[in-house]
Structures are given as C-alpha cells and as structure tokens.
Amino acid sequence: MAMLCTSLPLLIASSLMGTEASPVQTESVTRAAIPAAIPAESTAESTAESTTQAAVPAATVEKPKRRVLQTVGGGFLRGATRRAEDGHWQIKLKRGWTDLPASSVDSATLESELLDEFDAHKKNEDLAPADLLEWTLKAGLLQEAFVLGDKLVLEFPMDGDLRMVAAGQASRFVAGLPDRGAEGELEALRDVGARGSELVAEAIVERLATAAPRAEVLAALHEDLASGKTGRRRFASRALGRLFPTEDPRALLLHTIYDPSVDVRRSSALGLADMGAAEVCGPLVRALGAKDGTIRVRATEALGHTREPIFVEPLIQRMYMLSAAQSSSGAKRPPRGYISVGTQRAYVQDFDVEVASRSSVADPVINTLMDGAVLGASAMSFVTTTVSVERRGVLGALALAAGQTPGRGRISDWKKWWESDASAAFRNSPK
Fold it and tell me: What is the pLDDT of residue 258?
C-alpha cells in the first residue's frame, strides 16, 4: 500500500504499510523517518485525506505494478500503481485506489528495475560510498538508503563526501525536523539525533551549529554528555567533536574509557578524531600501559576507532608486548592447589601386651581413620585471560588504524607486515 502526503513530515512508509510516500504538491518537501521513529497508522490515514480518491476506479490500460513515482516536488511514492486511460496515475492506498494528476508525477520506474540496479551498484567496488548512497536516495529507494547509510557511516565514519551526502540529501527524508529558525529548534534536533540511527545523526549534526548561539549549543551538548540516556550521550559526543574541534577534549577522553555503552565510546573516539586525534589522544596511548586490563582494552579500541595511521606504531608495540607475555606465561606450568574436606576418627588399632612376673598390661595402640575427599585444581591466572582478550582488541584496532589486514590478520601476519617495506608509511621513527 502507499501513502500520500502534504507538506507534513513523513516516514518511510514501506516500513509501515509496504510503500513510501512523498508530497504531491510541487512546492512541498518529503521527509521520511527511520523505521525506529514510525508514527501510528492514523498518520498515514490523515495524510491521505488531502488527495482525491476515486469512488469508482477508472478503466486502466495496464495491470497494477509496483513502481517508484517521483513527484515534481522532489518526493517519492512507492507501491502498487497503474495508469488510467486519460493519462493520470492511480496509487493503491489502504482505503482503495487514489488518483494522482499526471502533472504531479515527474517520472515512474518499476521497483524491480531499481532494485536490480541497486544490487549492481552495491557490487561495484569502484563506486565510492558517497556516490552509492546518493544514487539510492535519488532513486527513491528510501528504506534501502537508510539501511545502507547506517552501514556506510559505521564503515567510513571519516568520509567527508559521505557526510556531505548525509547532510544535503538524506536530511530531506528525516521526519520530525523543525524548520530552520523555529522556536525550540535546538531541543528538537537533540531529540531526533538521540533517537535516530547512524545516518540520521550524521544528517542533522551540522544543523546544530545554526540552531542557537554557539555558547548555548556547547552547554546543551555537555548537558547531554552527562545524561543517563545512551542516545543523548552518543549524539552529543559526535556533535561535540564535529562542531567544537578546539574545545577541551577531556570530556570525550573520559567517555572513550569509562562510558558503559560501546556506541558512546565509539562515538567519543570519532569526536576526538574530528578534534585531531594525533594532538589530543596522547592520554589514550599512555593508557595502553595501564595496570587495569579494562582500561587498556578500551584505550586500544578508541585508538582504532579514530582511524588515525599515526597510532599503528604504538599498537604494534603493544602487540609485541602481548605476544611476549603470552609466550612466557605459556612456558610455565600453571600453579596447582589442593583442598581436603573430611572427618577424622580415632580408634584402637591394637594392643601392646607387656608381661611381668605375676602380671600383664595391654597398652592400646591408637590410630586415625580419615573419611572425605581431596580435590586438586590448576588455577589459570587472570593475567593470562586478559592477554587473550587484549590481543584480539589490538589486532582489531590495527586493522582500523592501518586501513588494511595483512594475510589472515594473525599476530604472525602483522609482524611480517611490520618488518617489511609495506609498513614504511606508518612508521613514526626510522626502522
């Protein structure tokens, strides 16, 4: 089914009713929300009331087919459609077929053709991530575009072209966005960013800069960083690094290590990358040698998330240290402990008889009977477990910072790569 709309903010209707919606009026703009922010079905009904519904469907020259219609206003309609004999379009809504003036439809493309082309573009390794997302949005495959966009933003978080497409193209289809300059714009953007997906957050983060005075925006972001809501902290850490690259980075440094949410720690690391990771992440490099294993692991992850090649060398050094520690600990036999649980009972085992003149004495011999069990176990140290976990974190961080994975990504593969000329560009000091 499909859903028509006026200039009201809309959703990706295919997540709700199997179709996507856009404005019919040429001057209106379509907005589609992420699946997580879909309103009730009554919204679809109310937006459909403004269109003309055919009481008796006109004779058609073709059977209904699923198409993506692009309207003159730049929006999209997706669902079962057919063209009447007089040239106007009809689209099937929940309450039946609804007429669309031919002048309001700019183009019509079969959904199957667009999906085939979409699959071909995804397999094209030469197509840049930003170009792939832009094509998907312009084709009207909004649901696919938002799913793809989330994946691309996670995989290429520092891609400037991808950020531009998100801010310039994807933001048109995000529901709930206030008009620029509207009262309460800053608070509304914070709410949408906290609830939205990766692509939604990327699409609207730049709007914060013009939503309120600079000092007010900065104070709001610090307030959200201290929020108990994960979404608020995640969006605030992303925006703080992007919009305020010269501010004190200590708040983000603390969140990369101590925040309980993996998403917030990752977003904070990306915020540090926008601030200039090479200049502000010195504390994270020093944290690689911390006594606490959790701090070392999270510092390793944060350095990898920055995607900064300068951190390859300290991560390699940490990998060598972990390899040596594991080798030395593996050469020793694990310590073994014992515990005995039982009961001791005394009994007369025998008598020592002594005979003297006209007398004899029986001296009892006392022994002990033990009843119970003795348990033995080898205790593997906590340090050995930490080395194994930390090693996996270091190898993953190296792949992100170097932008490549030599061989199968094992320690031996990284050692071979580091000792070859292929790693020359990542060395901060002469070989």
Answer: 96
Distances (CA, A) of 103 to 24, 99, 111: 10, 12, 21
**Sequence letter at residue 416:** K
- CA 282, CA 288: separation in Å to the nearest integer? 10
- Six-digit token string for 379: 């205790």
DSSP-based three-state secondary structure for 91 = strand
- Residue-level length of the chain: 431
CA dihedral 365, 368, 369, 371 (to 10 degrees): 170
Q: Which helix (H) or strand (E) holds 339?
A: strand 336-356
- The mean pLDDT values, 10 residues at a time, for the chain of 431 residues are 36 37 34 36 35 49 87 89 86 85 91 96 94 95 94 93 92 88 92 91 90 94 95 95 94 96 95 93 94 93 94 93 70 69 85 76 83 77 67 92 92 92 79 47
For residues 233 and 268, give the distance between their C-alpha atoms in angstroms, rounded to a whole number. Answer: 9
Most distant pair of Cα atoms in the chain: their distance = 143
For the record, the structure tokens of 81 come out as: 């459609």
How many separate helices (H) and strands (E) can be counted in the chain? 18, 8
Global confidence as pTM: 0.72
pLDDT at 19: 43
The radius of gyration of the chain from alpha carbons, rounded to an integer in Å, stands at 34
Query: Residue ranges of the alpha helices (H) in 335-381?
Result: none
Say if CB 280 and CB 249 are below 8 A apart.
Answer: yes
Separation of CA 41 from chain center: 29
CA atoms within 13 A on the CB side of 257: 18
Which residues 6+ apart lie within 8 Å of 215 measured at CB? none
Scanning the structure block, which residue is given the tokens 């059977």?
A: 63
* 324 half-sphere exposure, CB direction, 13 A CA radius: 6
269 closest CA partner among 259, 409, 319: 259
Report domain extents, the chain: 14-113, 120-310
CB 347 within 8 A of CB 367: yes
Residues in contact with 110: Cβ distance below 8 Å, sequence separation at least 6, in sequence order: 65, 66, 67
Sequence-distant (6+) residues with CB within 8 A of 343 are 370, 371, 372
| Position 172, amino acid | R
User: What are the residues whose beta carbons fall under 8 Å from the beta carbon of 18, sequence distance 6 or more?
Assistant: 1, 79
Tracing tokens 């994960």 back to the chain, one arrives at 230
Assigned token pair, 239:
């925006």
Contacts of 64 (CB under 8 A, 6+ apart): 80, 81, 82, 92
